[in-house]
Amino acid sequence: MSKAVITATLSKSFVNLSPNYKNAAEATAKYLGRDWLRNQMRRLVSYVQEEAPKRTGEFAKSHNFKTFERGNEFIGKIYAAQPLAGWIVSGTGLYGPHKTPIVPVKAKALRFVIGSRVIFAKSVRGMKSNKYDGRAYRRWQPGIRADLKDIGQKFTREFTARAK
What we know:
By secondary structure, the protein is an alpha+beta fold. It has helices at 19-51, 58-61, 84-90, 132-163, and strands at 5-9, 63-70, 73-80, 110-114, 117-121. It has 2 domains: 5-91 and 129-163, no CATH class; 92-127, no CATH class. The strands form 2 sheets. Strands 1-3-2 form a 3-stranded antiparallel sheet. It has a two-stranded antiparallel ribbon with strand order 4-5. The chain is elongated.
C-alpha cells in the first residue's frame, strides 16, 4: 500500500525571530504533539479499514499506524501487514503496471481452488485496481483541514496575546 504520511513540523530555525513567536510555537506544539497525531492517524486508519475490500475482513483489519518523532517532526505512517495491499491498489495482470495477462512461469497452467472446486487456466486477466486508500484519504481530509485551521488560529491567538 502506498503509505499515507502526515508530518507536523515545528521548525526551530524561526524561533529567533521573536520571543513571541517562540512562546506561541511552544504553546502550539504542546497542543499539536504526538497525541494529536495519534488521534488523526486512528481516524484515518478507521476510514482505510472501512474502504478496504472485505472477503473475510482480515485484510481490512491488517491496517494499522505508527507514530514517531524525528528531530522536530512528528510523523505518522499507515501500513498494511499483508503485502497484497500494493497489488490491490495498483491492480494486477492486464490492469496492473505491466499490462500483460498473468501466465504460469514453471507450469503449463495456473491452479486455483475456489470453494471445493479446482480450476486450471493457461492465463488470467488479473484484477482491476481498487484505490481504497485514496477514498479513505478523501473522507479524512475535511476533518484534518478543519483541525489545521483551528491550529493556525490557536497559534495566531497565542502570538498576538503574547505580543501585548
